[in-house]
Amino acid sequence: MDLDAVKEHSALHAKPSGLVLQYGTAGFRTKAEHLDHVMFRMGLLAVLRSKQTKSTIGVMVTASHNPEEDNGVKLVDPLGEMLAPSWEEHATRLANAEEKDMPGVLMDISVKAAVNLQQDAFVVIGRDTRPSSEKLSQSVIDGVTVLEGQFQDYGLLTTPQLHYMVYCRNTGGQYGKATIEGYYEKLSKAFMELTKQASCSGDENRSLKVDCANGIGALKLREMEHYITQGLSVQLLNDGTKGKLNHLCGADFVKSHQKPPQGMEMKSNERCCSFDGDADRIVYYYLDVDGHFHLIDGDKIATLISSFLKELLLEIGESLNIGVVQTAYANGSSTRYLEEVMKVPVYCTKTGVKHLHHKAQEFDIGVYFEANGHGTVLFSKAAETKIKQLARELEDKKRKAAKMLENVIDLINQTAGDAISDMLVIEAVLILKGLTVQQWDALYMDLPNRQLKVKVADRQVISTTDAERQVVTPPGLQEAINDLVKKYKLSRAFVRPSGTEDIVRVYAEADSQENADSLAHAVSLAVFQLAGGVGEAPQLGL
Ligand code: 16G
Ligand code: ZN
C-alpha cells in the first residue's frame, strides 16, 4: 500500500475536522456537501474488502428517498448483499478518522481484517440521478485508483441493478450477464415466459401508471420498455423531466402520507404504483369509485406473492418450505391473514433490509417485505435446483407449475428489493391469477394505524428487544405502553429510535382510525415524558 499516495490524494478530499458520521442501516447519508471525503475513503475501503473476499465489491452513490440535496454511499458485498456488520464498523472508523490519522486507520483495518494486500481488487460503481452524484462517484474512483484497484463505472443505475451486477460478476455470469442489457433481457424474458402461461390472456396491453419519484427508475424503466413487447405497457409519471427528486412523490411519500403523489391523475380503479428515488421500493394504490384512496403496501405485496408461490408448490406436490419475514411495522391484519388463512409461517425481524434478508435465507423459499415496499423473494440453491429439475421431469399441469416457479426465480432480483423486478412479478401474478387491483386489495382489510415522530435529547436512551416490539430502557416505558394498549381493541404499539433520523418513531394500530391516532398520541406522550423529550409535548392531531 502506497501510503504517501493515499495521503496526497486524501488531501484533495479532505475531511472537515470534527464531522462524525455513522454507517447506518443504509450506509452513510447526509447533505451532499459533507460527503466528498467519505466517498474517497469508501473507494479505499471497497478495495480492501475486494482483496479480502477475493471478489468484486459494489459501491452505490445514492440517498434513496431523501431530499435531492442529500446524498449517500453504501458498499455491496460479493453476493449482492448488504455489507457485513464488522465492515460497517471499519467503514465508520475510516470515515471519521481525522485527516492525519486516516492512513494509519486504513492500515490497521487491513491488518485486523487480514487483508492480503498482494491480491487484485475489482470494484463496480453506480450512481443515482442527484446533481451531486456524478462528482461524488468520481471521488470513489479516486479512492479505488490510489490503491491500484481495478474498477468499472456503470454510471447511472438503480441500486438493485448495481447489486445485480455485483452478484453476476461473482458467480461467473451464472446469475446473469453483468451488463444493463443482461439485466433487461433476463427480466423481460422471464416476465414474458411467465405471463404466456395465463389461461386467458385477457387484456393484451394491460397498462400501469408508474410514479418514478423523478429519479433513476424513470430512466431505467424507459430503457426496459423496449424489451417488454407483450403483457404490460407502462405510463411513466414524475419521470424527472420537470419535478424535483422525491419531492411530493415517490413510494416513501405515498406510504407515509397515504395519498397519491403530485402529478398522478388517477381514474377510479386504475392500477398505479410508486418507486422511490433509487428504485428499490415499490407500493401500489388506486382510487375506488367513491374516490377513496387505497394503499397496497409491502405487506400486501408479500401476501400476493407468497400465496401465488404456495399455490404453485401445492400443484407440483413438493414439500419445499416457504416463510414470510416482516418487521414490527407490518400491519396486524397481514400477519393474521398469512398465519391463519394462508397457513404460512411468519417471522419478525428488526427494521432494515439486511435483517429481513438474513432471516429469509433460512427457508427454501423466503419472502420478505418491509411495509414500506422494500423486499424480494429468496430461493435457496437446493430449491432452485429442485425446481429446475421438476420443470424438466414432471408432466402436464405439474410441469407447468414448476416452469412458472422457474420463471419467478429468473424474474425476481434475489440480491435485494428491486422496484422494477417486484413490479413485474406483481403484474405477472395479477395476470395469472386473474385478479384486479381491488380484488388484490380485498384479501384483507388493513387495521387503521398511525406513525408519529418524537424529538428527544438522545434517542439512544431507548433500547429494544424482541425485534423492536418491546422497550428495555428507559425503565417504565414498556409498562406505560402496555397500560395504554390495553385501553383499545385490536391494538398494538411500539417505539424505536430511528436509524436514519434523529428522532424516536412511534407506531400504533387499533380498531378505528380515531383510536389508532389517540393511542399513538398517548404513546408519544409517554416517550416524551420518560425518554427525555425536547421542545413542545406531542399534541393530538399533529
Ligand atoms: C433504511 C433501510 C430501510 C428501513 C429504513 C428505516 C435499507 C436498504 N434501508 O432506509 O430498510 O426501512 O431505513 O428507517 O436497509 P428508520 O430507521 O428511520 O425508521
Ligand atoms: Zn431506496
How would you portray this structure in words?
Belongs to the phosphohexose mutase family. InterPro entries: A-D-PHexomutase_a/b/a-I, A-D-PHexomutase_a/b/a-I/II/III, A-D-PHexomutase_C, A-D-PHexomutase_C_sf, A-D-PHexomutase_CS, AMG1_II, AMG1_III, PAGM. With 542 residues, the protein is an alpha/beta fold. It has four domains: 154 residues, Alpha-D-Glucose-1,6-Bisphosphate, Chain A, domain 3 (3-Layer(aba) Sandwich), CATH 3.40.120; 113 residues, Alpha-D-Glucose-1,6-Bisphosphate, Chain A, domain 3, CATH 3.40.120; 138 residues, Alpha-D-Glucose-1,6-Bisphosphate, Chain A, domain 3, CATH 3.40.120; 83 residues, Alpha-D-phosphohexomutase, C-terminal domain (TATA-Binding Protein, 2-Layer Sandwich). The protein contains 18 helices and 19 strands. The strands form five sheets. It has a five-stranded mixed β-sheet, with helices on both faces. Strands 7-6-8-9-10 form a five-stranded mixed β-sheet, sandwiched between helices. Strands 12-11-13-14 form a four-stranded mixed β-sheet, sandwiched between helices. The protein starts with a helix and ends in a 12-residue tail after the last helix. Bound molecules: 2-acetamido-2-deoxy-6-O-phosphono-alpha-D-glucopyranose and zinc ion (ZN). The site of zinc ion has 7 residues, from loops.
Radius of gyration: 23 Å
The CATH topology of the largest domain turns out to be: Alpha-D-Glucose-1,6-Bisphosphate, Chain A, domain 3
- Percentage of residues in helical conformation: 40-55%
Stretches with pLDDT under 50, minimum 5 residues: none
Measured distance between first and last alpha carbons:
55 Å
Number of distinct helices: 18
Shape: globular
Pfam family, one: AMG1_III
Family: Belongs to the phosphohexose mutase family.
GO biological process, one term: protein N-linked glycosylation
Protein name: Phosphoacetylglucosamine mutase
